[in-house]
Amino acid sequence: MKKTIVPKPDEVKYNMIKNFVYGKVVDVGCGKAFFKEVFNAVGIDIDKNSNADIIASVFDLSRFKENEFDTAIFFEVFEEIPHPELAIMQIRRISKRLILSTPNYNWFRKLIGKEKLHPLHYKEYSWKEVKSIVEKEGYKMIYFGGLGFMVGHAFPLFYTLGKLFPKLSSKMVMVFDKK
Known about the structure:
This protein has 179 residues and is α/β, with parallel strands linked by helices.
């Protein structure tokens, strides 16, 4: 019987998005800058302790020209800001494609008792809410995928279930192109 190996979280994310990333890349909210390194992206983060190239807020990307980037990566930030639609407006101005990851707040999380908000999260959204917010800002979703369940990296079955049923997954990846 073949043993299932669950990749590290960054490898899972990389493998999920690598075929969607193209051209000049910006990683908005880059943190430790994993994507900055693997995609040679410009890293932006508000945290002075991050590995960002530029310390700036997602709400002020005015230093960049319109469509300066082909791909914007926006992972694990959407849920941490009070007005994500304003951030999406800024990102849409500077990038043709948006690759976004955020927790997926859904009925399954309530069922398994994981509905409590993370202390750093302003709000957690369902996949439908995220899709609606982003599409109102002029993007169209071209891909949706799940990153597994809360315990996915500890138990391969939960990781696999999250891949098979992405809308039940605890984290989601969505790819949008400008309309």
